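[job 4471] stage=fold_predict status=RUNNING
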Amino acid sequence: MKLKVFLGALALVGVVALAVAATDPVLMKINNKEVKMSEFEYLYKKNLEQQVNTESIDDYLNRFVDYKLKVVEAERLGYDTLPGIKEELDGYKDDLLAPFLIDTELQEQLVQEAYERMKTDVNVSHIMLARGINPAENKRQLALMDSIRTCILNGEDFGEMVAKYSIDRSKENNKGEYGFISSGVFPYDFEKAVYDTPLGELSKPFMTDYGVHMVRVNGYRPNDGQVEVAHILRLFPKSSGLTESEKMAVKEKIDSIYNCILNGEDFGELAKSYSQDFKSARDGGKLAPFGRNYMVKAFEDVAYSLPDGEISQPVETPYKKYQLFY
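[job 4471] inference complete, writing structure tokens
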């Protein structure tokens, strides 16, 4: 094992070899610091295990003394107090401690929990309040959410409570109805609340880094796994007042591409030439495999309903674009 030490010339410090008969005798003293036989034996044996060629004990002893002298000189120069060195040493300590700090039983429990959740999607509705800027405000927000929960349990409409209180920007489109969600998509605290809440019931208010939440579980379905699709994308013009004629021009373009495919032209080559998703276009329109809830609903519904090898008709999605799927 090679030891690299970036130091200047080292002043020789007195070395006194000792041979004292004891259970763990002092092998030597370097700058009045005792070095026990056990330390030397441990490092020598460890060195033998890591070397291809065997090193004699005399040769290793000379290297060991040089190493100890360098340590003494580094301490004299204050290298052990430099912030960069201390940070590096702390990093080594953390790396060495990490395997001993892992609760393997808990880790196995979490893996099993994640595996079971991946089998099922959960249909949820959601209300979110803002987090406070301090613990007292967070407590008030949790109390407010609890009051909203009580109102709903007493017959108030969930959607009306969403409209009145929720800060989730998606409420304008979904009125708090998230639809089906899958494991591994949302933060762990959110996912845990969803999967721990019984069917038809409201969760208790809970907090994540994003806000104060409450969910209602509406139903379950088996997880469909992942799909892999290719697409051709044509975007509507980026203008504040999109006209019907602008929209029709995009539709006519995507329809013409669709007709080319029906007439036998290659989907991948057309994607490379005409798709405005430039990243996937380079690969013939192919997207990475994805599961439920990773795409907008209109995109997801087509992707999961399309038989293998089939090509969809042009589909308009909410983000002002038309798409073809394969």
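[job 4471] summary: The chain is about 45% helix and 15% strand.
[job 4471] exit 0
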